[in-house]
Amino acid sequence: xxxxxxxxxxxxGPLPRLSIQELFSKRITGFVNWHRNRRKHLFGSTLDLLLDxxxxxxxxxxxxxxxxxxxxxxxxxxxxAAWLRELGDPAHTxxxxxxxxxxxxxxxxxxxxxxxxxxxxxxxxxxWQEDRHIFPYLRVRGKVAIVGCSTAVATPPFAASGFxxxxxxRDTVNMLRAAGEAGLFRVVMIHHPPIRGATTFYxxxxxxxxxxxxxxxxxxxxxxxxxxxxxxxxxxxxQVQPVPVVGIASASQGPGSIKPAxxxxxxxxxxxxGAWELSGERFSxxxxxxxxxxxxxxIFAA
Length: 302
Prior knowledge:
The protein is α/β, with parallel strands linked by helices. The protein has a single domain (1-12, 26-294), classed as Metallo-dependent phosphatases (Purple Acid Phosphatase, chain A, domain 2). Helix content is 26%, strand content 25%. The chain is built from eight helices and 14 strands. The protein has helices at 20-23, 27-36, 44-56, 74-87, 107-114, 116-119, 166-181, 208-218, and strands at 2-7, 61-65, 93-96, 137-141, 144-148, 162-163, 185-189, 205-206, 222-225, 232-236, 243-247, 263-272, 275-285, 292-296. It has a six-stranded mixed β-sheet with strand order 3-2-1-12-13-14. The protein has a six-stranded mixed β-sheet with strand order 4-5-7-9-11-10. Strand 10 and strand 11 (243-247) form a beta hairpin. Helix 4 (74-87) packs parallel to helix 5 (107-114) and helix 7 runs parallel beside helix 8. The longest helix has 16 residues, at 166-181.
């Protein structure tokens, strides 16, 4: 049995001191939003509690579906790289970027260069290359194929949309087909929810229909996303049967907000092609904010 843990929207804090030059951009709106709202509810200790619980459950792999940082300043990107190294061997953690990781022009490239060991496929070059597409990537762990996709693009102020384009769609279909032919259980990671109506218009994913066609054509057994800071379950049409699309609360969300407290999902994968067995449990922060407790023993029963 393979155990896969899923967290998202880490939003590592606290927000560092930024220069006037760094704030003279879209970052000023995020800076104000952080001090008015986010800093009241996002706590680093919460993230530590989740990670300790994940280790206690002996997960084989950790999937992180984006938004490691807040404003994608150089200090934040380097801090996120250090945090990833603290998690351990990059072979056991897979990351895809979110809109906050590409907050302003140029931030995406800086983030991917700094986090490259966690966003590169098994057959990708060992060193970052400026002119090479990273996504989609393929990582094979036991009987599981992890396919990482990116929707991270810089957007104007007051927008947080993502983009899934035609080139990435074609490559993802080919990757999923090959993984299926190899008899692997296919997990797709993406930041924005690939579901129409799952979030507001200015936070939506552009390319939802294209992504749905990828799943129905290439095939998959599980899709993981973040972005909404909600614990959700949707379904997409698959080749043989519906494919679960699972979202998760922010990994740094403290109690007392309108959004659910921090949580992670733990998936158990077993079986073989044509007879896969998938189960999922959710563990979340308690009301006191000092422990992680079981919330749902079967997230697919929702």
